[in-house]
Protein 1
Amino acid sequence: MLNQTNAQPIAGGTDLLVQARTNRNRLQAFVRIDHLTELKTLEFSKNELTIGAGVTFTEYLEKASQFLLPLTEAIVLIASPSIRNTATFGGNIVNASPAADILPIFYALDAILTLESMRGVRQIPVSEFVTGAKKTSIRPDELLTAIRLNIPQNYKYVYRKIGPRKALSLSKVSFVGFYLPDTREIRLAYGSVGPTVIRAYEAEQLFREGRIPAIPDCIERAVKPITDQRSTAEYRRYLCRALTQVFLSRYIKNF
Ligand SMILES: Cc1cc2nc3c(=O)[nH]c(=O)nc-3n(C[C@H](O)[C@H](O)[C@H](O)COP(=O)(O)OP(=O)(O)OC[C@H]3O[C@@H](n4cnc5c(N)ncnc54)[C@H](O)[C@@H]3O)c2cc1C
């Protein structure tokens, strides 16, 4: 008989069912959550965006694509329309792949996740929730219910996903850079170049100190790429530097 703790929530199944096929010896039980309307909220108020964990990428594109353009750009490059029809925000985050395309944007904007269980509700920054490649601090009885983002005023950005193809490809590197002219800040986040998304806090501090020419070298030190079937560590490191330079030269005078 299946133990209750073996049961895993299944939303779109686009990660879980692929994993289940390679895990044939394990008895698995899934609890469907794709019908839960409580997980389908999409709210935008006072520069804050709240996305229910059960919102699919297609639903986001249909109902909220104007709220946060870098997120929209990232989502249209995910997989294919048929995958986006079932793949959810919650599944992408809990699966915690370093190549998850929405995570760099959530890291750069310090997204806060809401997790709920019979024992209560807790809120945690996404960068603390993801503890390693495909590892999170979720507890067996918890559901991720929502993601909350503060959208900065007057932001400018560059988002890039570099992959082998335009569609149905996982990234070699993904990058988002935000420039916030009102507070003279930058935010930089990189996917697929470490066990988790890397937020370049040290480079952001160099920017605050006006040491802008030092930023590309700092990025090369901050990222921890590996060589795998999609790319080499050297090319990924080069891409991180080049994408950072593209971002800085677009928005920062005299870079
Ligand atoms: C062909 C293909 C191409 C892909 N391309 C991309 C791509 O380009 N970019 C990209 O980022 N991803 C890609 N993916 C991965 C996948 O589509 C996403 O990660 C997707 O967002 C996962 O969501 P899901 O609802 O399908 O998750 P599921 O497979 O249902 O679940 C994934 C994990 O999250 C858990 N989970 C789901 N929802 C919750 C919740 N609310 N609370 C707690 N736990 C939960 C599940 O238990 C499981 O551990 C691709 C997948 C496939 C099959």
Protein 2
Amino acid sequence: MKVAIIGAGASGLMLGGLLTQKGYDVTIFDGNEKAGKKLYITGKGRCNITNLCDTDEFLKNVVRGEKFFRSAIYSFSPQDTVDFFENLGLITKVERGNRVFPESDKSSDVIKALLKHCKDVKIMYNSKVEKIVKAEKGFKIFLKNENSKEEKNVKGDYVADKVVIATGGESYKATGSDGSGYTLAKSFGHKIEKLVPALCPIKLKEDLKDLEGLSLKNVSLIAEIDGKKKELFGEMLFTDCGISGPIVLSMSSFINRAGNVKLSLDLKPALTKEQLEKRLLRDFDSNKNKNLSYILKGLMPNSLSIFFAKKCGLNLEKKVHDVLKEERKIIIDNLKNLPLIFNGLYPIDAGIITSGGVSLKEVNPKTFESKLVKDLYFVGEILDIDALTGGFNLQIAFATSYSCAKNMMALP
Ligand SMILES: Cc1cc2nc3c(=O)[nH]c(=O)nc-3n(C[C@H](O)[C@H](O)[C@H](O)COP(=O)(O)OP(=O)(O)OC[C@H]3O[C@@H](n4cnc5c(N)ncnc54)[C@H](O)[C@@H]3O)c2cc1C
């Protein structure tokens, strides 16, 4: 039985190795000159391979496709991912928030382990698949420009009994995951749910020239999404035209399909308005003859205090003893809820992942086989499943591939 896998990324490599272990004749095609280009840049070059939390917790971190993904995570858990890599000789470590990394902190070691797992798989590099056609028996695979250099007997087309599309999303296109897999899926009549960026920086319509590079810890980003409130606590930073960092990336995954978004920042989430009022009164009392700028600098970084005062219409040069009660109220209200003008998300290429993809209604959640075309499968990020940061997305790639392999093999 010949299986062609399109894509030598996280999911394609996991699947390829599993299928050869059971005697399938597997060829992986990848448009790049090497495997795992996206894997290489994951986790800032350290590759956060999974998140060692329990299944319920895991599913809470899946933003889309949680129900569909349920059976896959039960058949291949985060612990199974750790065991899988450890069996291949990759020592792992668990960091804050159950994030699992290779002990070496090198994503290249994860790729090496996956290639070891694929020792019996033929991997055709520089082989971008442009078209797949269902033949009378199996599929014909056409490569772009007949550019395959790896195998003499392939001249632009290849025949397989089964095809798995594991081409990833369409963000960070330079890694090879350029969205061409969606075109392949569409050619078989599959619906592609709207593609939008996820885990992506947010653009603001604000003058941020003095704030670029400033990072804030222990703040809450609040979004009112079509009237519903979502609040995320942690770390963020300002970019040249917006905001990024952990809580911003996560928030993007919740607002990427919303019609109406209002954003604001709680700069003092640990304090209530009453506690802030007391603190301000104390500060004012002991610094009566200082400028208001002095008080604000005690509450936030200097560059932010200038931005803050401008937004609130406050005069930083004003003497503290001249600050009116109403102005004190404005300060407190804005410390707890500083509005930021939302200007959309960065483009899809800047997202850590792509949200949307092959419609889950048309894929079997156990075998990952297309419900429209027999012997055609989809695994990994091409599916309409996405999760937050923390190792969840790679676990989705590994678990969908494991389930696909297990159940493909169970079939006659
Ligand atoms: C900067 C960054 C950091 C990340 N960090 C993490 C992290 O630490 N932890 C985590 O869990 N997730 C992380 N992710 C997300 C994770 O990398 C992806 O979700 C995961 O790689 C998806 O696996 P995949 O196999 O579906 O696709 P990919 O890994 O993207 O692989 C797809 C492969 O298909 C090939 N391909 C595409 N089209 C074709 C075609 N037509 N013909 C032939 N080959 C084709 C591509 O060249 C590519 O090699 C990160 C993503 C980015 C961009």
Protein 3
Amino acid sequence: MICVRRARPDDAPGIAAVHVAAWRSAYAGILDEAYLAKLSETRLAAFYTRAILDRRDGHAVFVATAGGQDQPGDAPGPEAAIVGFASGGRARRRGLAEGEVETLYVLDDFRERAIGRRLMRAMAAHLRVIGCGSALVWVLAENPARYFYAHLGGKEAMTDMVTVAGRPVKQTAFTWPSIEALLSATAQVKES
Ligand SMILES: CC(C)(COP(=O)(O)OP(=O)(O)OC[C@H]1O[C@@H](n2cnc3c(N)ncnc32)[C@H](O)[C@@H]1OP(=O)(O)O)[C@@H](O)C(=O)NCCC(=O)NCCS
């Protein structure tokens, strides 16, 4: 069974492993290959430990876990493993929306199983709890994930340039002027 819950500090290594796998897959051809090759699970685990503990600006991290029976392969273990995560809080940049989904990553083998939708819903519910009436997410313009956000009703609000790994890349902000609209768009959960 897939579960979505608030992250605990001991989830940090699992989140870091998903970060590295998802970045190498999603950003191949978009970000610098040497940078992607050098991503360090150890350093990212330390980063996510701090992110989970630091609740300033309403920041929160959610994880999706899959039990052994959900894992691909012939001999899955019994342990639930982290297969996706999302994080965010009050928007880092004022003006576009009150709340921001800063990260959202699902392992390739677990895509199209409503995990991204459930993580977005967890974030939307959290943003509403901390008093945000609207939400935004930044996505690299070349990333097909932009169509996922459009599918959930996000509207393109602006584009700008951001430097990632020393390379300028275009990014697009998708916004939901009403947090209720994002909650509605993520309400139907179909799990397979
Ligand atoms: C984007 C991402 C999080 C989506 O997660 P997911 O678990 O595969 O998505 P879901 O299964 O919850 O999909 C929900 C709906 O969106 C649709 N969808 C998913 N990815 C889509 C895409 N790239 N384009 C268009 N629609 C998409 C699904 O078909 C589904 O539609 P339905 O409910 O009408 O059947 C996942 O593909 C991912 O991790 N991508 C790589 C990392 C990344 O780019 N993250 C975003 C960084 S800003």
